[in-house]
């Protein structure tokens, strides 16, 4: 059996994209194909499942600890930059919606400008916007 070249573990958006591509694979195969394995002296491949799962949690921007510890990372912080995904979608992550206290079902009116997108929150009471959020390209 030919020896497979080990790849560097994927992180962030690359990791999320690869996992989505491998949706029909087992979690061990996903971890391995994303670079989360080691090869022992005897040539046995061992999957680093905890590192893989922690990288997924970080990539999703989920913060499990309520306060960052002095010796650990505090989770991923919002970068205020997003890019168009391969399927054409523009995703605003949970870090931003949490910061704005948005809840599932909150509605927005989208207005497109030359180099900006404006989201105006729809007020459930009078269906008029009461908060404007602007993103400049």
Structural features, described:
The structure is a single chain. With 137 residues, the chain is an alpha+beta fold. The protein has 2 domains: 1-77, no CATH class; 94-136, no CATH class. It is 26% helix and 19% strand. The protein has 4 helices and 5 strands. The protein has helices spanning 12-21, 27-33, 49-60, 94-99, and strands spanning 37-39, 45-47, 108-112, 116-122, 129-136. A 3-stranded antiparallel sheet has the order 3-4-5, with no helix packed on it. A two-stranded antiparallel sheet has the order 1-2. A hairpin with a 5-residue loop joins β1 (37-39) and β2. α1 packs across α3. It starts with 11 loop residues before the first helix and ends with a strand. The model is unreliable at 128-132 (pLDDT under 50).
